[in-house]
Specification:
The chain is of the alpha+beta class and 71 residues long. It is 31% helix and 17% strand. The model has no long low-confidence stretch (mean pLDDT 83).
Amino acid sequence: CRRAGIRSGTLYPLLIRLEAKGYLQAEWQAPAEPGRPPRHAYRLTAAGLQLARDNPPGEPRGYTGLSERPA
């Protein structure tokens, strides 16, 4: 979050919404070290990859596809 300049209160709701729309696949990963919490890992789906290609970084914020469920 720090690198992207986004607060966690913004990032995680966005990830959850993208997963619900079928653009991301999420899974829990076991902790790498004992005593650490499990981590949620996200992976782009085919629809998510297409969404990313259709909305490259630096483009105006008129994102396409976020309001529609992927086919």
